[in-house]
């Protein structure tokens, strides 16, 4: 995967970085932990500017977050509740769960949105409740920029500082990301297995 990412960055420059980070938010197995350090290394070689690399990565991430936010706004809460009534097991949600999720998100969204951008899997998922529960764009976009900016800048600067050893970032963060993704998947299947609709509400 490193060669493919490197070739895309080499051939497309800032646009390639933005595209890769956009895809990373759509398809989490494409790792930002490899994309941004490699882009930072390209900046260290003088092929790209560091500021351009960081802005491209952040722009791609925000665009990916806006994609899922828009999809979630189209789905909307009413449709989600209907789906939960019919397919609650596979969503692992019933109507009461959705109400609790809405209450939690509305109380904690100011830190949940930016914080999720440093956690693999969650950086994609956090845009969905933001859209479902109609978080205003004037709040969602700055919070997304904050979280994605901190993460992409940290990775890009690490690649810039490490130079040819940029892959050390992925070597250490990559396994941690895989473990987190595996835990999220295991938690989902555990929820499916144990799901029982709450009929009390």
From TrEMBL:
Membrane topology: Multi-pass membrane protein
Protein keywords: Cell membrane, Membrane, Transmembrane, Transmembrane helix
Keyword tRNA processing: no
Domain of life: Bacteria
Residues of the VTT domain: 30-160
Parts of the chain that traverse the membrane: 12-30, 50-72, 140-160, 172-190
Keyword Transmembrane: yes
Subcellular localization, as worded in the UniProt entry: Cell membrane
Designated name of the protein: DedA family protein
Organism: Sphingobium olei
């Amino acid at each position: 995967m490193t060669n493919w990412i490197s070739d895309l960055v080499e051939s497309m420059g800032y646009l390639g970085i933005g595209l890769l980070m956009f895809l990373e938010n759509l398809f989490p197995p494409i790792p930002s932990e490899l994309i941004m350090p490699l882009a930072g290394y390209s900046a260290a070689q003088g092929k790209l500017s560091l500021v351009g690399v960081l802005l491209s990565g952040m722009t791609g991430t925000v665009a990916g977050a806006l994609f899922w936010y828009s999809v979630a706004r189209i789905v909307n809460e009413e449709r989600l509740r209907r789906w939960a009534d019919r397919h609650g097991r596979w969503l692992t949600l019933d109507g009461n769960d959705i109400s609790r999720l809405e209450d939690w998100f509305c109380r904690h969204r100011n830190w949940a949105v930016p914080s999720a951008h440093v956690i693999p899997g969650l950086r994609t998922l956090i845009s969905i409740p933001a859209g479902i529960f109609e978080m205003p764009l004037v709040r969602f976009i700055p919070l997304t920029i904050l979280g994605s900016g901190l993460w992409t800048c940290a990775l890009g600067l690490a690649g810039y500082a490490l130079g040819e050893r940029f892959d050390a970032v992925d070597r250490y963060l990559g396994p941690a990301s895989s473990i987190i993704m595996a835990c999220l998947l295991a938690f989902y299947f555990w929820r499916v297995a144990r799901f029982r609709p709450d009929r009390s509400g």
